[in-house]
Amino acid sequence: MTAHSNTLPSGNDLAPAPDAPRHPTAAGAARLALVVGALGVVFGDIGTSPIYTLQTVFNPADPHPVPVVTANVYGVISVVFWSLMLIVTIFYVAFAMRADNEGEGGIMALITQVRRRCAGRGRKAALALAALGVFGAALFLGDSMITPAISVLSAVEGVKTIDPDLEVVIVPATAIIIVFLFAFQRKGTTVIGKWFGPVMAAWFSALALLGLGGIAHHPQILRALSPRYAIEFMFGHFDIAFFALAAVVLAFTGAEALFADMGHFGRKPISRAWLYLVFPAVLLNYMGQGALILDDTANLSSPFFLLAPEWGRIPLLVLATAATVIASQAVISGAFSVAAQASELGYLPRLRIAHTSEHQAGQIYVPWINWLLMASVLVLVFAFRESGALAYAYGMAAIGTITCTTLLFLYIARTRWGTPRWLLATGGGLLLAVDLTFLAANTMKIVHGAWLPLLIAITAFTVMVTWQRGRAVVTAERERQEGPLRAFVERLRQGEPKAASVPGTAVFLGRGKDTAPLALRANLERNHVRHAQIVILSVETQPVPRVAESDRILVDDLGSDRDAIIHVTTRFGYAETPDVPQALRAVERRQSEGRPLDLDRAVYFLSTIQLRAGTEPTMSAWRKHLFIATAHITADAAEHFRLPRERTVIVGSHIEV
């Protein structure tokens, strides 16, 4: 999936400097802090799956029900165990997390690597692989809508085990929790972030204890760890097992988070948390639920909550609700991160992004995405009304993202590491076979809800590729109107067009160093004004999360050091928010001798474009209108680049697409 935004600094941020003395106690405490932090952010989704997975597998109302007999219970538990082992432990923890992009993980990090490595290898391959990655990111956005709905619903449904008459409060209570959850986003997760890890540590401890209690009543369930039961279930009862996979996939929803959050916690803390606590805890709970079902099939109504003694169900309900809210928080933050990175890579318009922490760059809030998600989640809650109805929609979103990630990873394994083809064919073939089997099973549930994430993903994918195409058309037309920069500067040096010189510094933001900004042309040709110091500035988004300060700027005197016209290129990573005035401070220091910049009083000029649907066959008519409609959510450029509003001038023009 997707790349998530988190509440903690990266593992590298907490690591001691190479030459610093390493105190064993301090180093151990730092590692423990990262592991606990990862529990709170990374594993919320996959850690709350035991609430509803087995209940969905054996749901008697399912159109393809799994008979509740001993062999099937053993087989399902075995399939759950080996699916977690293959997809999460082997693929994500052992392999995918090594395919980072400058320390960042997630499907957007894979897309940037693929785009970079496809350069010069053929346009068709680059387009196909990039489109695959974008579709995976679009599926994750669908996942971001479904996760809060199914997670909070499944937790609140636990009230039925306390008093069946409380069923009427499930949907209203869920809606209230979700409204509060999204309303809180603008404040950031700093306030409650420090509680995420301890709450989830308590949650996983409860999972393990409840599971051990169930296993104690039926210890034979431990036999399900043998792959024999999974194989016999899959091949001996394929007509049943195949459809069961559409629900088994719920056991590893959230697996993408392990990869996506790697940049904020580091590979080792996430791996340790999974191997030493999360995996054992969820596995024990699944086996405990299996034992409970074998004891009495009536426990199928809510096997997770019925694992607890009657006196412990209210505390468990409270803890489960807190855990599902945390799981929802993680995926919402991930949606913010994916949308922000997609915007920086040119797949979405420039979005308004608020940084909610002065110390941790990864904490961001994207208002437009937040309110879109809230509206979508509420619609899902009121439309589906129970977690079981959402289960198949959830599974399709998860396995679709995982399959896209696997395909991109295999390409990177070949081009980045030179992995032999025979090894990719065998190991990668096995992983793909598992993914595609789960995917095929979920396609059988399209009419039962799996259509929902596909519809969301297709819509988001269409918007993203349309924006990318329309942006390319607008850029080409804009470059034609702007004309060559060096030729324009040469005319300016020769006194054309004639303009009155005024003191001070003017900064003109442009698209690159090849063309003259429209605002510069307008200021000279219409206003007949030229500032004493002219800076033509372009902002580049690099295919890396963050750019080192030493590589932040590049100054070009445009062929002459005799006058005060320079071009400055500022570079930012796709995970950074461009701060143009701050970046220009480095130029100010460079120019301190000769012609210094006066940034404290500098005037910034922006060009704004009004789009119109033209007659040229650049895109189909409906895509032109979609592109123009999408452009309306574009964030204010002055705010995006952190320009001082009182010293920013906006010059307008229009372009037909």
Automatic annotation (TrEMBL):
It is found in: Cell membrane; Membrane. Residues 1-10 have a biased composition (Polar residues). Residues 1-22 are annotated as: Disordered. InterPro entries: K+_transporter, K_trans_C, K_trans_N, Kup. It catalyses: K(+)(in) + H(+)(in) = K(+)(out) + H(+)(out). The keyword Transmembrane applies. Keywords: Cell membrane, Ion transport, Membrane, Potassium, Potassium transport, Symport, Transmembrane, Transmembrane helix, Transport. One of its GO terms (molecular function) is symporter activity. It is a multi-pass membrane protein. The chain crosses the membrane at residues 32-53, 73-95, 125-146, 166-184, 196-217, 229-252, 273-294, 364-384, 390-410, 422-440, 446-467. One of its GO terms (cellular component) is plasma membrane. Residues 503-656 form the K+ potassium transporter C-terminal domain. Residues 35-490 form the K+ potassium transporter integral membrane domain. Transport of potassium into the cell. Likely operates as a K(+):H(+) symporter. Belongs to the HAK/KUP transporter (TC 2.A.72) family. PANTHER family: LOW AFFINITY POTASSIUM TRANSPORT SYSTEM PROTEIN KUP, OSMOTIC STRESS POTASSIUM TRANSPORTER. This is Probable potassium transport system protein Kup. The gene is kup.
